[in-house]
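Practice set, problem 2.
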Amino acid sequence: MADPKGFLNHGREVATSRPVEERVKDWNEVYVPGSLLPIISKQASRCMDCGIPFCHNGCPLGNLIPEWNDYAYREDWAAASERLHATNNFPEFTGRLCPAPCESACVLGINQPPVTIKNVEVSIIDKAWEDGNVAPQAPERLSGKTVAVIGSGPAGLAAAQQLTRAGHTVAVYERADRIGGLLRYGIPEFKMEKRHINRRIEQMRAEGTRFRTGVEIGRDIKATDLKKRYDAIVIAAGSTTARDLPVPGRELKGIYQAMEYLPLSNKVQEGDYVVSPISAEGKHVVVIGGGDTGADCVGTAHRQGAASVTQLEIMPRPNDERHPADQPWPTFPILYKVTSAHEEGGERIYSASTTHFEGDQDGNVQWLHLAEVEFVDGKLTQKPGTERKIPAQLVTLAMGFTGTDRVNGLVEQFGLELDERGNIARDADFQTNVPGVFVAGDAGRGQSLIVWAIAEGRSAARGVDRRLTGASDLPAPIRPTDRALTA
């Protein structure tokens, strides 16, 4: 184990952020490069060797957290990287983007700040890349079987890499012009620079995975034709149907879904545009939705030079600390979070509901009318006399997603059955009602975290491998019915 007295001798320290006035002028990651390595061994030493590592229950990947904490404490970076990759294909993604339910389940977190598991993870993988310890793992022999993966987000990439390494010939189909799914175009550069995706793609290419961009299954290629071409198919198309806001004035210009707004700023960083076609520069911006996607819109608006940024959330403000009765350890609590984007400015309004939008004579949105809401008999109800309006020249809707895309015809062409929540139904092996067609990630689970997406991709890969070969040595960390550890 790590230092038996580590958690007694050292307090929690996290990555150092660059000054706000500096980072809002660029799109680089917000943390000071190299700031973690000098402190990370001491932080890893805080791991308690607690006997029953509840962090394993918090993370669906089954990460061997105490083991790689011990290696990081001893600065055996090669061994730490091996343990990290044993359960996670892309730890540099999760180490930057995951909200760390493992830390919420850390035993030390019962009465102290938990171990900085996420920071240890990203330190290990960044050191592994720096030291050349991340190499392609090409299969020793090919199976002669072919697999198509639809979607190149974390679930699709994880499934593709696992199946390629098992010896199958895998092609990944992505409707966008670049590989990565929401990792590429939904996550701003300041949260994860896209070089991390690019080098993983090169690793996968070297292993034998093939990539087809700009191809949408259901439109460019019929699902039935794809099924004839491949021995198995994995649908990892995500949950991309955004929840809308049907209030008067929604048709005004200047109101966009978050996934209409965010990808364009990423395309600027890719060199496709000089300036985003949807820019917040000089505008009063309102972000509707208090989650991570909303925070991404806030940070993007800051960097585009917004005159003001206001974020609305219909639910009450969460607690600052875990309430033992409502959100007991080791569940993942809903707490008040101050992300890097919130540190950069703006106003956050809770218990607020948009009643309607108001525009100018040219049809451009200018004002957002809202009212306070409260729970009455278990239902959110508008409080009389609380109506007011705030300036809104650019509005982004970041209220979550309701299911996989039904417009492109993929679901209907395959003849897929849906579950009661509108997701693609699957059996214990992640196989749909259509033999040979599997589903992984948000398309089958619904909107979820990146760790669940990767875990789904790995588990679905095992189901595919079993169908194609009769047996499989690939790991399956979760079942389709597994759910996050919540109260």
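Problem 2, part (b): a different protein.
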Amino acid sequence: MDHEIRAEYDEGVLPHEDTPVKLWHMCRIGATTAMCGRQLAPAAATLPPDTWGTPKAEPFCFLCGAHYLREQP
């Protein structure tokens, strides 16, 4: 399966270029539901999955990380 990392923002904050990210989540490409079950904004920032584990994708949802690891060979 193909994945992407999608941003979560503080409650009530709309995603913009300079909006601080509360937490990064792993999603399947094009999905707005994270692997942990959280619903994310369709307009949220995304990162490629190889950014996982780097400072650029911190802070990262630990539950999404665990689910992602289970899907990787």
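Answer key, part (b): The two ends are 11 Å apart (CA to CA). The longest strand covers residues 3-8.
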